[in-house]
Design goal:
Largest sheet: 8 strands, mixed
Helix content: 25-40%
Radius of gyration: 26 Å
Strand content: 25-35%
Structural class: alpha/beta
Strand order of the largest sheet: 4-3-2-1-13-14-15-16
Distance between the termini: 76 Å
């Protein structure tokens, strides 16, 4: 029985420039410490090898400190064996990166930088397909069909890129054949690029990112524990959790007149877990301006308890009548501004982003007027 951890897309060094400054450092650190969590899952599952199927680093020019600290972390988990494959973010074009990696390579780390079989131990061969550039423009796994390995050896493919229509960055130009595992007689094909965990067929999986970095793939990061009983045997594939942050989307469907703040409070995760949760509340339906302002206030009040909390109200329409605007003012400059914003928010001839901006401004005006002393 040969057991290993299949992971990919660590993206060490990712900057998270759109996040608050305090959170950026925590997210960057989680990408480094996930190496320890991968090692922990390997030991718990009886695996002696960790396959990293591309994009270990977020760019082709990680700082020397990022590189050396990552290699030191891997070295600290010897005798676990780590196998690193260049992905599209850290492709073979990054000559300086891979030269520096070779110069500081620990004994328990192997680089899969050539498209040729690597016998990592008797009876186990890794067939890597390193990314030559960010956009190779061809199926880099094709050579595996013709690759010769020792009789009776396990054949494990290792690749990074799109398969069918799955491409993390939307390019989808470099299509890996979905039946590559069967074509090449592989016992397992370990793929990277898609940050969500996905089975393509029983012998071919995307591991998903071990530490998530976007709301596109909900939940904490995961990896795969794979067990191969022998050549031709069906692999046993078990998802294992490795992420420290939990990225979630929370749908919030609202009716006009509904207490949005209460509806939100009932759906939020509770307790100390909030510190590790990045939450996007996706509100839809209809709300009166006062209720929408109360929702904004409720989000702002609870947001500091979360790693990150954002309200997406693009699909939340504002029901507004003259009686609602009377709460702002019955005449004068504020009422004129409110009338104009209401008209712009309902003008179908305007682009959707302008209507949304008008709705947001109207809600802010309600919030401002409610906060004013009577």
């Amino acid at each position: 029985m040969f057991r290993f951890i299949h992971s990919s897309d660590l993206h060490i060094g990712k900057r998270f420039g759109t996040m608050p400054e305090e959170l950026r450092g925590r997210l960057r650190d989680a990408r480094h410490t996930v190496l320890d969590r991968l090692a922990l899952q390997a030991r718990a599952g009886g695996a002696g090898t960790i396959l990293l199927a591309g994009d270990c680093f977020d760019t082709e020019t990680p700082s020397p400190a990022m590189l050396r600290q990552a290699l030191a972390a891997m070295a600290g988990h010897a005798p676990l064996r780590w196998i690193l494959l260049p992905g599209n973010h850290d492709s073979l074009l990054a000559d300086e990166l891979w030269a520096a990696t070779r110069a500081a390579l620990p004994a328990n780390v192997l680089l899969a930088t050539e498209p040729g079989p690597i016998e990592i131990e008797p009876g186990v061969a890794i067939l890597p397909a390193p990314c030559t550039t960010r956009r190779p423009g061809r199926d880099l796994t094709e050579w595996m069909d013709r690759a010769a390995t020792a009789d009776g050896a396990l054949r494990i493919g290792l690749a990074h890129g799109a398969i069918q229509s799955f491409s993390e960055d939307g390019g989808g130009l470099d299509i890996i054949a979905p039946d590559r595992a069967s074509r090449a007689g592989l016992d397992y094909l370990a793929l990277g690029d898609w940050h969500g965990q996905m089975r393509i067929e029983p012998r071919c999986w995307y591991s998903g990112a071990p530490e998530q970095d976007r709301f596109k793939h909900e939940g904490p990061g995961r990896a795969l524990l794979v067990a191969l009983a022998g050549p031709g045997a069906m692999p046993e594939v078990t998802p294992v959790e490795t992420g420290s942050f939990d990225w979630r989307m929370l749908p919030l469907e609202l009716l006009s007149g509904e207490d949005a703040a209460t509806a939100l409070a009932e759906r939020l995760p509770s307790g100390s877990v909030r510190r590790q949760v990045l939450l996007r509340v996706v509100a839809s339906g209809r709300q009166r301006p006062q209720a929408r302002a109360a929702l904004d206030a409720a989000v702002a009040a609870v947001a500091p308890e979360f790693a990150h909390l954002v309200l997406d109200a693009e699909a939340l329409a504002t029901d507004c009548e003259s009686a609602d605007l009377d709460a702002i003012d019955r005449a004068g400059a504020l009422r004129q501004a409110a009338d104009r914003l209401l008209a712009e928010s309902q003008d179908e001839a305007r682009p959707s982003n302008e209507r949304e901006a008008a709705r947001d401004a109207l809600v802010r005006l309600f919030s401002y007027c409610e906060a004013m002393p009577s």
